[in-house]
Write a structure and sequence with these properties.
4 domains; mainly alpha
Length: 357
């Protein structure tokens, strides 16, 4: 399939069906005046059809079938293909103005991920990139992604590198759109979070499937998208519709403690914040919503009442014992220890590294 797209024939010219009509007339020794008399059309009408100025209507196609013996469906198909090609030519002229914008989108990375197919023709690549974003023009892209509501435009990455930022979120949107979800239910989602917290002790091949299922049952599509260059985010939240939310995560930093904190951070946005904005987790605490989400994630994973015990732990055995008592993975507890003590190199071996399959 990929080779076919690489070498497909996509002409930059359009052949009017009137040229085929002229060839048929010549083969039958028929002049325009003869054909006009037999079809009941004027010579001027036939002349415009032959030049591609006037389209062949369904009625004209039926008349031509009766006179020259070429099926009406062939004339209709030739006419449709001609008009389509004319439209593509006009579109190419319009799209060429957007080639500078294309340079701001990480198309090579999208090709490597299979989201775009390789194209030698930059205009074709531009067209496919716009289709990836679900828009028909660069202007439409700007009208969507330059809106102040996007991420509340407080993320420095969105301000300075909107192309890669929007691309990562769009990859999440496309993945989330394929996840069937029940209508959102905040109560059911809160219940799901309790079970998902316990999944921190499981291996990825177990917890990923289960947490996705639990989230979907509560109206939340969990999208996992590999980190993208120039996009230093851990996660994002967006409402796909009033009844379906998306939580988008990556493995930035690799540590399980960061992954789980990011998930519960985004869960807070789903439960507590507006459905109108994309909320970005770029580790900023300037926005009060981000501070509230951080507090929610911290308290949900490990209630603050355990902090003194974690801070005073001296050995890996102590942290493992605390993890069993708290009901989360030892890696999450080790991450809390590092945060509380600022000893970032301590107990790193207890924190599992998560890798993309």
């Amino acid at each position: 399939m990929k080779a076919a797209r690489l070498h497909r024939f996509d002409p930059d010219f359009a052949v009017p069906p009137g040229q085929t009509l002229r060839e048929v007339m010549d083969s039958q020794g028929m002049t325009q005046r003869d054909l006009a008399a037999r079809t009941g059309l004027t010579v001027q009408t036939l002349s415009r059809i032959i030049k591609g100025i006037q389209p062949i209507s369904y009625e004209t196609a039926n008349r031509l079938e009766m006179v020259v013996g070429v099926p009406a469906r062939l004339w209709n198909r030739l006419e449709a293909e001609y008009r389509e090609q004319l439209s593509k030519q006009a579109e190419r002229g319009r799209l060429r103005d957007g080639l500078d914008w294309l340079k701001t989108i990480p198309t090579r990375e999208l090709i490597e991920r299979g989201a775009l197919s390789p194209q030698r023709d930059k205009v074709l690549l531009l067209r496919e990139t716009l289709a990836f974003f679900g828009v028909s023009s660069v202007e439409a892209w700007h009208s969507i992604w330059d809106e102040p509501a996007v991420a509340a435009r407080r993320s420095a990455c969105f301000e300075t590198r909107p192309g890669p930022a929007a691309t990562w979120i769009r990859l999440g949107e496309r993945q989330a759109s394929e996840i069937d979800c029940r209508p959102h239910d905040a109560g059911r989602f809160k219940d799901a979070l309790h079970e998902i917290r316990g999944l921190t002790r499981e291996e990825p091949h177990v917890f990923v499937h289960r947490m996705r299922s639990l989230c979907a049952d509560a109206g939340v599509a969990l999208a996992l998208v590999r980190e993208m260059k120039q996009v230093p985010w851990n996660g994002a939240t967006k409402w796909m519709s009033p009844s379906k939310a998306m939580i988008l995560l990556n493995l930035r930093g690799k540590g399980e403690d960061r992954f789980w904190f990011s998930f519960f951070h985004e869960a807070s946005h789903v439960l507590n914040d507006s459905k109108k904005c994309i909320l970005i987790n770029d580790e900023s605490d300037v926005d009060p919503r981000e501070r509230a989400a951080n507090a929610f994630a911290a308290e949900t994973l490990i209630p603050a009442r355990h902090n003194d015990d974690i801070r005073s732990a001296r050995t890996a055995f102590d942290l493992k014992r605390l993890a069993r008592a708290i009901g989360v993975s030892v890696g999450v507890v080790a991450g809390r220890y590092q945060y509380l003590t600022k000893r970032w190199n301590y107990h790193r071996d207890l924190i599992r590294r998560l890798e993309w399959a």
